[in-house]
């Protein structure tokens, strides 16, 4: 499977009629539209497999919102992966140039980034109640 062309997918989304799209049925006609614009109108008379047809109409109607949301989520994840790669490079550099008494600036920055991602969990003493009311 080839890698999807995310730029082309986003361009197609942006060129399409603005969403959200909605589905409705009027007089036996399935319509997908946005505000006062009809995007797709289907009149098949007696539909053979209505259940699957209705699911496809729902899929098409929601694609206008779902695809941009997925693209945004993908972009955010790609940015986070790149940031974590940079952190990993810094960690590797710090490890390879370790000086126990004088930590490198990279080590300090990595520790700060780690602490920002994973705030310290309370220790046993911090979570221990002051007194136990059941104790006599």
Quick rundown:
By secondary structure, the chain is of the alpha+beta class.
Question: What tags apply to this protein structure?
Answer:
136 residues, alpha+beta, three-stranded antiparallel beta sheet, 3 strands, rod-shaped
Architecture blueprint of SSEs:
Blueprint: H1 6-15, E1 22-26, E2 29-34, E3 37-42, H2 50-96, H3 105-117, H4 124-127
Antiparallel strand pairs: 1-2, 2-3
Question: Overview of this structure, please?
Answer:
By secondary structure, the protein is an alpha+beta fold. It has one domain (6-119). It is built from 4 helices and 3 strands; from the N terminus they run H-E-E-E-H-H-H. It has helices at 6-15, 50-96, 105-117, 124-127; strands spanning 22-26, 29-34, 37-42. The protein has a 3-stranded antiparallel β-sheet. Strand 1 and strand 2 form a beta hairpin. Helix 1 (6-15) packs across helix 2 (50-96) and helix 2 (50-96) packs antiparallel against helix 3 (105-117). The longest helix has 47 residues, at 50-96. It is rod-shaped, with a radius of gyration of 28 Å. Mean pLDDT is 78; it is low at 131-136.
